[in-house]
Every structure is written in C-alpha cells, then in structure tokens.
Amino acid sequence: MPIARIVARYSENAKDTITLLCGVDEENQIRQGEWFGVVKNDDGRGDESNYPFTLHVDHQKGEFFLDYGYDDVDSRQLQKTDIQLNPLKENSFFTIFDEEEGEEFSYQIVSIHLYD
C-alpha cells in the first residue's frame, strides 16, 4: 500500500500548515484507517505551536474527522473534514469544519510525496 506525505497551507496564512501521513489507494484517495498528522500554527512572532492529530477515515460509516486526542476523553476536540471526497492532488483544496466554534478552515495541498 502506498503511503503519502501531504503538506497543505492554510488559505488565510501560508505559514500555518498541515502535514499528514496516510495510506492512499490506486486512485490517490485516502484509504480507510487512522492516519497521523500535525497542524503547525505560526503567527510570525516566533510563537509557533504544533498540534498532533489522528485523521479517522471510515468509508462504511461515512465518518471523516480529525481527533486532537487530549488525555481527557470528555475534552477531546473532533473536527470534521472533506479531504477524502476527491483524489489527492497538488493545488487542490479541502476544508476542516470546527462545529464547536462554528468555523471552517480551508487548506491548499502544496505537495504530495508517495512512498511505496
């Protein structure tokens, strides 16, 4: 199974990025499973922060979300995404939906590297 390393930039601040490692199928779509990623926020003042997450992809249940996996299960932060809807390709966009805050975050894929 090929593994992809995806780097995407936040549409409102190119210094904010997501890096994701995930399995992909022959059509370059994310395979079912749990995949590791990191959100990097950089405010440009030297105050960079990194947030690891797990991307959960379950095609049978129609569940696709980021889990920021806090120690306390009751305070976990889950955010839905649409990254799985289309084949992965450079310059395409996907959205992360923060239902708790009522916000959407659009990211543009800037690079995809496949490993066999």
What does this entry look like structurally?
This protein has 116 residues and is an all-beta fold. It has one domain (3-115): Lipocalin (Beta Barrel). 0% of the residues lie in helices and 59% in strands. It is built from no helices and 8 strands. The protein has strands spanning 3-10, 13-23, 33-42, 48-58, 63-67, 78-81, 93-98, 103-115. An 8-stranded antiparallel beta barrel has the order 1-2-3-4-5-6-7-8. β3 (33-42) and β4 (48-58) form a beta hairpin. 16% of the residues are buried. The mean pLDDT is 87.
Can you tell me the CATH class? Mainly Beta
The radius of gyration computed from the alpha-carbon positions, rounded to a whole number of angstroms, is 14 Å
Please give the share of residues in helix.
under 10%
Look at the helices and sheets and give the structural class: mainly beta
Number of strands: 8
Topology:
Layout: E1 3-10, E2 13-23, E3 33-42, E4 48-58, E5 63-67, E6 78-81, E7 93-98, E8 103-115
Antiparallel strand pairs: 1-2, 1-8, 2-3, 3-4, 4-5, 5-6, 6-7, 7-8
